[in-house]
Design the sequence.
């Protein structure tokens, strides 16, 4: 696989989380860098992450529709300010008033895999909790990115580089479905730090959220929902 080989040979493996708040913090999101990070959790098992999300404003957060499939507002929470697995008491659990998936989301093929949740009460902003905006432009190929997020109670991150959808399809078998227009493809460039599963990580260009991991289609290749593609629907 030429594309994967070139990406890995040109990459630098990162052994240290670039978003750590401090060396004294265990598995942290930097509170000043990523205050828009949130998670969906089950009301019965509050320490288990269902899906990662990003805060849009004081009432809404965007996430994957597959994480909302079959969920109810009575058993789902939005958790904000969960930046440190050693200090969960800093976080805030917020009940929901609405769960909204894209009207043409397909849970089998994962097309249009985007959704939003509305909180019952307003999200209170501070230095650890802030909203973010959805980018209006798409990511081209060959752009360095980072994927970050929580899986269960475990914080995960890895580096990746974008590639075009056409090149991505040529590199993978894409069993069951091709690349979708609303997706962006990345190749992992720090394989020693990567999980062998999909954990709905947040795709970052620098510190700007541009997507959410939706499928792992090959050993080093993932697809992500492109926020820019769904911007009009989200807003």
Sequence:
């Amino acid at each position: 696989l030429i594309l994967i080989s070139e990406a890995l040979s040109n990459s630098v493996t990162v052994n240290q989380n670039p978003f750590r708040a401090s060396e004294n913090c265990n598995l942290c999101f930097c509170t000043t860098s990523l205050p828009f990070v949130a998670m969906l959790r089950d009301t019965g098992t509050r320490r288990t992450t269902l899906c990662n999300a990003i805060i849009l404003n004081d009432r809404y957060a965007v996430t994957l529709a597959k994480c909302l499939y079959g969920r109810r507002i009575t058993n789902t929470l939005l958790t904000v300010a969960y930046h440190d697995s050693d200090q969960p008491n800093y976080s805030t659990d917020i009940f929901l008033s609405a769960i909204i998936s894209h009207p043409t989301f397909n849970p089998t093929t994962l097309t249009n895999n985007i959704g939003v949740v509305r909180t019952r009460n307003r999200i209170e902003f501070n230095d650890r909790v802030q909203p973010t905006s959805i980018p209006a432009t798409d990511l081209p190929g060959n752009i360095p990115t980072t994927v970050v997020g929580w899986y269960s109670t475990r914080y995960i991150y890895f580096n990746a580089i974008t590639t075009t959808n056409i090149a991505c399809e040529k590199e993978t078998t894409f069993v069951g479905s091709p690349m979708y227009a609303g997706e962006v493809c990345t190749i992992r460039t720090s394989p020693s730090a990567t999980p062998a599963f999909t954990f709905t990580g947040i795709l970052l260009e620098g510190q700007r959220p541009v997507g959410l991991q939706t499928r792992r289609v090959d050993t080093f290749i993932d697809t992500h929902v492109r926020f820019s593609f769904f911007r009009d629907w989200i807003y």
